[in-house]
Amino acid sequence: MSQERTTAATGAHVSGVSAKNRFILEQLVSKDFKLRYRRSVLGVVWSVLNPLLMMIIMSFVFSYFLRGSNVENYPLYLIVGNITFGLMNEATSTGLTSIIDAAPLLKKVKVDRWVFPVQKAFTAVVNFALSLIAVVIVMLFFQVTPTWHLVWMLPALLLLMVFCMGVSLLISSLAVFFRDMVHLWSVLITAWTYLTPIFWDLSLLTSAGAPWYVLAVVKANPMYNYIDMMRCAIVYQATPGRTVILLAIFWALLALVAGVVVFRKTEHKFILYI
To answer: Which residue has the higher pLDDT, 105 or 125?
Structure first.
């Protein structure tokens, strides 16, 4: 009888912790969303205008460089790549300092530390969802009719979320002990942007006679795979290649495992450095 009570109490405790973390996640996402558009006249409209304006400017500039490529519906190709990479950029860049920024709260309240970097990924997904309105506008303008392949957006988004959570857990841990990570990450993101075919196409490398290992590096790039899955769903209207899917799963699991392992091994020391 006592064992049953203990089991029930333990179950209630676990569910309570889960509910507590869920509540904290919801509150943090809501707080970030409100702070992002505080004192802004257009508010959430910027989440639609920003990718549209960037697409117009970049299409005007880079379409001249891509005349020899096989890219169709370049504006749509561009905006899908832009917002997908932007999701990763926002999730990891804000997740990087999430533990440091939460220092006042962590010193006063007992709360699971992993909530803060993970929450940044959820906030980035909310902003990504708003950016999809801009994608719909572009599709309507260019009369692109969606097909059933649009369902590939869901696994692509889920895998990208897992990848971002893992990376955020990893780099937020490192940033607590090595503050240079804040500056290093911005450099890495810049290099990552140019390594990823956001505004250019792989056919340009092929036509330029790039060696096989350059193409291999680009295709192994995690963001290439997530962006390619998104473009297959929206732009190409085709099923992603098996290699692309497997690599997307591989990078998501690798990032999550690495992030969780490093975070768990270091989180007990956070309070000494924040």
So the answer is: 125
